Amino acid sequence: MREAVKNTYFWVLHQICDALLQKHLCVAPIYPINQYMKEQIAIQTLLRSHLLDMQGRNPSYSLRSYANKVGVHVGALSSIMNGKRNVSRDLAERIARRLLVDPQTRADLLGLFPARRKNKKATDDQGPVTPRYLQLEASQFKMIAEWEYYAVLSLMNCDDFQDDTSWIAKRLGITEARTLEVIKLLFEMKLIIRNEQDKLARAVSSFRSSDDTVNLSLRKSHEVTLDLAKDSLHRDSVSERDFTYVTMAIDPKNISVAKEMIRKFQDELSDVLESGNKTEVYRFSTQLIPFTKLKDKKLKLESL
């Protein structure tokens, strides 16, 4: 910890010296320590904030469990977070991927690191990633990964829906500021509109994400869904929710058939539950997971 404070002290000292030199002597900075420190501080901040978020949801969540999630040895992770060990661009990219960081934050983080060297032909073929594209991708990430967006859209289908942010916030158990943020993005993505009566309404009747896609936002969404299910398990009575599972020996070749049956059941269940007097918003999720180590490598890759 002392070393981290010491490094920060010297960084601040050099910042002051560089500013004075440039202002009074019109010379270049001593060396680019500003950029060097920024990238390391950014990854440390990212790791700490995600750890605090995990411990906020689960006070017993350990640093060792966090290290397993990040994919770094617990000792190395501790050194990185305390500023005793530097992180390369490749490791920063891997950490961002394991933490399911949204595209905009990931791009901002990696932009602090020295860019990889690319040959001219590869750069010309691919072209730079524009800020507009990143902004759109980040919006889509939020829409899929964060549960409040689909929850607001579903709440609009309730018979007693009120076009009032405080009412929406109270029904979903979120803050009014968060409600305004969600509604703003839904408008930007043209998923909600103001109807002829100037009331909030859905622009499209239903939505469905793509299946079997290696997609960061979908993985984040599934992770959030599992956390929400865990909360419901301890919060809601058995008459208000349902948990069930079956363990079986299977032929992996039948998994594709099982997925089709699950999708069909989801549609049939939705038809039943969405009839009648709609007053509540629920999420139905299913998991079909292997207990044994998969022998078929191709099957394993396709299931990611």
What do you see in this structure?
The chain is mainly α. It has 2 domains: 2-126, no CATH class; 142-302, no CATH class. Helices cover 59% and strands 2% of the residues. The chain contains 14 helices and 2 strands. It has helices spanning 2-24, 33-57, 63-70, 74-81, 89-98, 103-110, 120-126, 131-145, 147-155, 165-172, 176-188, 216-235, 255-273, 297-302, and strands at 192-194, 200-202. A two-stranded antiparallel ribbon has the order 1-2. Helix 6 packs across helix 8 and helix 8 runs parallel beside helix 12. The radius of gyration is 24 Å and the shape is globular. The two termini are 38 Å apart. Mean pLDDT is 77; it is low at 1-7, 20-33, 120-129 and 299-304.
Q: How many independent structural domains?
A: 2
Stretches with pLDDT under 50, minimum 5 residues: 1-7, 20-33, 120-129, 299-304
Number of helices: 14
Order of strands across the widest beta sheet? 1-2
SSE inventory with pairings:
Blueprint: H1 2-24, H2 33-57, H3 63-70, H4 74-81, H5 89-98, H6 103-110, H7 120-126, H8 131-145, H9 147-155, H10 165-172, H11 176-188, E1 192-194, E2 200-202, H12 216-235, H13 255-273, H14 297-302
Antiparallel strand pairs: 1-2
Helix pairs in contact: 6-8, 8-9, 8-12, 10-11
